[in-house]
Specification:
Blueprint: E1 3-9, H1 11-26, H2 34-39, E2 48-52, E3 58-62, E4 64-68, H3 110-116, H4 123-128, H5 130-133, E5 152-154, H6 172-186, H7 188-199, E6 203-211, H8 212-229, E7 234-240, E8 249-250, H9 254-273, E9 276-280, H10 302-316, H11 331-338, E10 344-348, H12 354-359, E11 366-367, H13 379-384, E12 386-394, H14 398-411, E13 419-424, E14 428-429, E15 461-462, E16 464-471, H15 473-490, H16 508-525, E17 542-543
Parallel strand pairs: 1-4, 1-6, 4-5, 6-7, 7-9, 12-13
Antiparallel strand pairs: 2-3, 8-17, 10-11, 10-16, 12-16, 14-15
Helix pairs in contact: 1-10, 6-7, 6-8, 8-9, 9-15, 9-16, 15-16
């Protein structure tokens, strides 16, 4: 069945994953019409597992291991309504008085209470209660799917950390220790993970999304052990970088040092144990531009920004979940197409009008992986710097398809077979859990609408173009990390920034190996000598990636 096992670790990644599976759940259709015929192209068995609840009813839940700190789960229970045990006659084991102390439960979100009522989702309710979806506290507040109990894995981290700091960056050694403890105490890999593997008929691979800030070492340890257990299985990994991994980094700032070092160490581990790896910029460091003209999102809201990230991540991996033999590719085909260990995520969402595409250049697309200045990569180098691309174009409009393909040819010089395009008439669906993001007045008139109103709730689906691309732009990303590690070593920065008290942990020898690895990756993706003879650090112990 070409199954995929999904792993999500960290708060941002679970926001992305919740949007992802909400979208996948929206492909389930039960009426006979044209929409059903299109959605029937999706092979639900790739991402969902069929099971039986204790009450005997069939279930269809994500094939997912979800890790996060307990306080980030919100009101989501580990045992949901599908798996609640039957209440029978209680047998008293003690005849005396019993005192029970209960923690005050977290109140469910308005959206969850609405779903619990068992009513069909209605756009009128969302129109009148739209502010409720703008007050999302946890990723579980807008979750639409049921999970089996072993999917939800609260992780109590060990070691020194500030639990009140949302931008806290975990020590690398603490993440490794936490993973080892989870394996020992909860039988993580030999228990829950292996049970997912044994349920698969033809496992195509493991898709992982993780936060580099707190879960880099935890997740890479898991990927390493999974690779040892399944050496021929393809691994696709998305790493959400820390907020500190951008712009100027002060090597005298302990948090920034741990953030950059954790990301560098994670990339070294991913290069060895994962087949395709995609770094993602933290949403808080995105730059606005032409790509945001049709968007009205809140840049400070994870609920909004991760919806954009998830839309491209879900679309770029859509061919992995299609039924048709020609379009139903797999993770191995993705790895062969890119022919490299690293790629970056880019695309257009939503697609503008045809006339706007005809007049535009690549500024209409946005790179969610690499922050590149106009001075660093010019338009001409962007055209010639693409080595390979895995693109997915989803639209029912032939004129719009033609316009996007013309735009791709105008902005990407590389051609087939190095650039592979999957065309699908399954446009990106908008479940009611998806936030209001669109400036509908400037969007294409060809968009599919279910009702004639002014909000995006009137849209059933939206055209989208997403791509995983291997290009010279990645050289700047690796150069950023190379320069930081080089500065760290040469500047004599305190290694206690990287290690818990009393732990030798990461030393200069390990950092030198990481520096060499970043240098090799930088040079492997570079198309010129642009990085030669550059100054790595200044007198203040800071560097600028540009």
């Amino acid at each position: 069945m070409r199954e995929i096992i999904y792993i999500q670790t960290g708060n941002v990644s679970n926001y992305i994953g919740t949007h992802f599976f909400n979208t996948c759940e929206s492909y389930f259709t039960y009426d006979v019409d044209d929409k059903v015929k299109k959605m029937d192209q999706i092979d639900h068995n790739v991402s969902f597992r069929e099971g039986v609840a204790p009450g005997g009813q069939p279930t269809f839940c994500p094939r997912l291991l979800l890790f996060d700190e307990k306080e980030n789960f919100g009101a989501l229970p580990k045992i949901n309504d599908l798996y609640s045990p039957e209440l029978g006659d209680e047998i008293a084991a003690w005849g005396g008085d019993i005192g029970i102390n209960k923690q005050v439960p977290i109140e469910k979100s308005a959206y969850q209470r609405y779903l619990d009522e068992g009513e069909d989702e209605d756009s009128d309710w969302f129109e009148s209660n739209d502010q409720l979806l703008h007050s999302v506290r946890y990723w579980s507040d807008f979750n639409r799917v049921y999970h089996i109990p072993r999917t939800l894995q609260p992780v109590p981290f060990v070691g020194t950390r500030d639990t009140n700091d949302p931008d806290c960056v975990t020590y690398w050694a603490d993440g490794v220790t936490t993973f080892q403890r989870e394996c020992l105490d909860n039988d993580l890999m030999d228990g829950d993970f292996r049970r997912f593997v044994e349920e698969c008929d033809l496992l195509q691979g493991v898709q992982t999304t993780f936060d580099a800030s707190k879960f880099a070492s935890f997740t890479t340890s898991m990927i390493q052990l999974a690779r040892e257990c399944l050496p021929k299985t393809t691994a696709l990994s998305f790493m959400v970088n820390c907020v500190q991994n951008s712009g100027l980094v002060n090597t005298h700032d302990p948090t920034a040092c741990r953030a950059m070092t954790n990301a560098s160490l994670a990339m070294c581990a991913l290069e060895e144990y994962s087949d395709v790896n995609v770094p993602l910029l933290h949403p808080l460091v995105w730059r606005t531009g032409a790509w945001t003209r049709n968007l009205t999102y809140d840049s400070q809201s994870l609920y909004h920004t991760t919806a954009l990230l998830s839309s491209h991540l879900e679309s770029a991996t859509l061919p992995l979940r299609l039924k048709s033999p020609g379009a139903g590719l797999d993770l191995q085909a993705l790895s062969c197409q890119l022919d490299t260990k690293f790629a970056h995520l880019t695309g257009i969402f939503p697609t503008p009008r045809v006339d706007a595409l005809e007049k535009s250049d690549s500024d209409l697309s946005h790179d969610f992986s690499v922050e590149v200045s106009p001075q660093q990569i010019t338009h001409s180098s962007r055209r010639s710097g693409v080595f390979a691309e895995w693109g997915v174009l989803r639209s029912t409009s032939l004129p719009l398809r033609d316009a996007i393909e013309d735009w791709i040819q105008k902005t990407v010089e590389t051609r087939y077979p190095f650039v592979n395009m999957t065309r699908s008439d399954i446009e990106y669906p908008l479940p009611f859990s998806f936030p209001r993001l669109f400036n509908t007045s400037s969007l294409s008139a060809d968009l599919h609408r279910s009702r004639h109103t002014s909000s995006h709730r009137s849209l059933d689906t939206v055209p989208i173009y997403s791509a995983l691309r291997c290009s010279a732009a990645l050289s700047s990303y690796f150069n950023q990390h190379y320069k930081f590690i080089d500065t760290f070593i040469r500047g004599g920065t305190d290694l206690r920034f990287l290690n818990p008290d009393g732990d030798d942990g990461i030393g200069k020898d390990e950092l030198r190996e990481v520096r060499e690895a970043m240098l090799k990756l930088r040079d492997a993706f570079s198309t010129s000598d642009a990085f030669e003879n550059e100054e790595a650090w200044d007198e203040d112990g800071r560097y600028d990636i540009y």
